[in-house]
Every structure is written in C-alpha cells, then in structure tokens.
C-alpha cells in the first residue's frame, strides 16, 4: 500500500476541488489491484441536476466519481474529463471518493434552506460499486436521510446494497424510499465483455429477490438494451421473464445511447469484439447519441408486451413507486408504506 499526499494545484484531480486538501491513496492489494482511490473532502454533497426540468429528479448525491463496474457504454465517462482524468480505463480505475459525504449530507439536510426534496443516488455513477465495500459511505448517507425523513431513491448494479438492507428498511419506515436495480440483459457472454466489473445479471436479480423478500419493492431498469447484441426477441423474453421471476415490481426498458466519452470507448470495444457490427452502429447512431425513435418504440413495445405476459408493469415516467414493509403479526401494515417518484 502506498500513500501520496496531494494538495490543490499539484496536478491531477486535486485542482477540481479548489483549496480542499486531497489525499491520493494507491492501493496495491489483490482486492483492488489496478485501482487508484483519490480521497477528497468535498465542499458540498447535495447537487442540483442541470436541466432538472427534463429529469424526474432534481437533486442528487454522488459520493464517488468514476466507477470500477467499468461498463463500456457508461454515459458518465465524459464527467471524468472534467477532472482531467481519462474517460476510458481511467474512468474505471481512478475513483474519486468523497470521504466526508455522510457528515456533509447530514449538515446540508439540517440547513434551514433545505426543503426536504427527493434525493436521487446512483444516477451518475454507482454508489454501490466495489469502493463502497471499503469506504462504507452509504450507511452514513442512509442514516442521515432516515434521521431527517428525507425521501430518496437508489439506482444500482451493485449487490452490495444488500449489506444495507436493515438500514433501508428503517429508512422506509420513516420516509419514501425507492430502489431500482439495472439489468439490461441476462446474456452472460455479453455481460462479461461489456460490463466486466459488475455483479452478474443473475446476482443482481438475486438482489432484487432479496429486497422483495425483505418487503422493499424494487423495480428493474432494463438498461441498456444493446442493439444487435441484446435485443433479439429471445433475449428480451429471457430477460423480462427473469426480472418477473425475481419479484421486480416494474421493468423499464432503455435503449443504449452513446454520448461523447462513452461513444468512443464503446465503438473501440465494438471494433475489437464485434467488428462486423461497426457499420450497422454507424448507421443506427448517425443522427446523434440516441437510436432512432422507431427502434426505441419497438423495444419499448416488445418489453411492455412481455411485462404484461409475465405479470409485471412497466414504470411510467415520474410514477410513484411504493415501498412496503411486511405486515405485522397483527395484520396491520408497518408505518413504512410510502410513495416515491423515481427514474
Ligand atoms: S455501473 Fe453505472 S455508473 Fe458504473 S460503469 Fe456501469 S453504467 Fe457506469
């Protein structure tokens, strides 16, 4: 293990955090080989989403930047360039950790100016990525939200969320809590190459099941549906069936989009693993970061039909998602039955 102390102005990501001291720790253990953690003390932790009017949430908390889940298509890659860090391997391996996130959040939630609005987590990078196993920031964050009865939601691919199940249940007793797990496909061959740092789709669906068994409703964001690789009728059927069997309350499809930062990285991956598809992708994404509307509509319709067949409903934009707690022995619902708007 090696320690380096950096201060603002010494280069690297420190400059982004102004005058705050930054400590970079390079871990050389089998568990985190190849990953550098940049520990920082952030100045603020509750962030307003730019262009929030177009999003179903306005406020976010992101304790990490960069994500070792390393999804090739990750739209957050571009944000690493704001830190003067590489958006490819650097995004996967240079992880900024806001070590003071829990205490900062508790302070900001206690501010007279804070109105108690819904806070979304996991909307930029995954708050239950591997680093969370080491830094354990989420328990303090959930406790702060629970203690203020502040509604929140979490979107993740990390099965590590199950570690915090008791806390999530406590929070759901106090406020509105929404959980979504992202599973775009169940094809293990595709998973190994395109989401190499994530728990397997089966493990993620196991987390959905565990959440459901604990009385916490969990939706699945079926994202991304990857054209020509994960969109066959058989693949869509297998995925929606598995989502239903896991006990998810909703399934919401989202077709792959390729913004700058992600686009270059994904295209290089495509060229290496599926070179014959490169011309088809060039045509499909010729108009910009999004697949054509006809294609998106087709996928949405197929998934909705499958969801109906398997007995789960797609979440609608801004739809309230219910978090329930199991009935008490006397048959009454515990005080956690709450409503939430989420992704
Ligand atoms: S888990 Fe989410 S944030 Fe992390 S690399 Fe994958 S898509 Fe990006």
Automatic annotation (TrEMBL):
InterPro entries from the UniProt entry: MJ0683-like, rSAM, rSAM_sf
Record region (Disordered): 319-343
Domain of life of the native organism: Bacteria
Residues covered by the Radical SAM core domain: 53-301
CDD domains for the chain: Radical_SAM
Pfam families documented for this protein: Radical_SAM
Gene3D superfamilies named in the record: 3.80.30.30
Record field: compositional bias (Basic and acidic residues): 319-330
Keywords: Iron, Iron-sulfur, Metal-binding
Protein name as annotated: Radical SAM protein
Taxonomic lineage from the root: Bacteria, Bacillati, Actinomycetota, Actinomycetes, Kitasatosporales
């Amino acid at each position: 293990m090696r320690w380096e102390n950096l201060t603002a102005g010494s280069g690297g990501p420190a400059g982004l955090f102004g005058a705050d001291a930054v400590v970079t720790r390079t871990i050389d253990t089998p568990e985190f080989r190849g990953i550098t953690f940049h520990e920082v003390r952030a100045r603020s932790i509750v962030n307003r989403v730019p262009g929030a009017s177009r999003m179903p949430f306005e406020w976010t908390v992101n304790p990490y930047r960069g994500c070792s889940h390393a999804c090739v298509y990750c739209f957050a890659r571009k944000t690493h360039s704001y830190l003067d860090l590489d958006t490819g391997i650097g995004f996967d391996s240079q992880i900024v950790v806001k070590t003071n996130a829990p205490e900062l959040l508790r302070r900001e939630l206690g501010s007279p100016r804070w109105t108690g609005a819904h806070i979304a987590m996991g909307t930029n990078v995954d708050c239950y990525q591997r680093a969370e196993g080491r830094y354990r920031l989420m328990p303090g964050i959930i406790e702060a939200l629970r203690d203020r009865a502040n509604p929140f939601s979490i979107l993740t691919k990390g099965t590590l969320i199950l570690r915090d199940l008791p806390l999530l249940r406590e929070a759901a007793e106090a406020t509105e809590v929404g959980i979504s797990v992202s599973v775009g496909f169940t094809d293990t061959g595709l998973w190994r190459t395109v989401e190499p740092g994530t728990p397997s789709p089966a493990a993620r669906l196991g987390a959905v099941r565990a959440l459901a068994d604990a009385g916490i409703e969990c939706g699945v964001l079926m994202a991304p549906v990857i054209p020509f690789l994960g969109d066959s009728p058989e693949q869509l059927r297998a995925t929606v069936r598995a989502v239903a069997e896991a006990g998810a309350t909703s399934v919401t499809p989202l077709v792959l989009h390729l913004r700058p930062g992600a686009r270059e990285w994904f295209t290089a991956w495509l060229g290496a693993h599926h070179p014959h598809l490169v011309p088809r992708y060039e045509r499909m994404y010729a108009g910009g970061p999004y697949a054509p509307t006809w294609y998106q509509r087709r996928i949405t319709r197929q998934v909705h039909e499958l969801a109906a067949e398997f007995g789960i409903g797609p979440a609608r934009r801004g739809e309230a998602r219910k978090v329930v707690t199991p009935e008490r022995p006397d048959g009454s619902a515990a005080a956690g039955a709450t409503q939430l708007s989420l992704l």
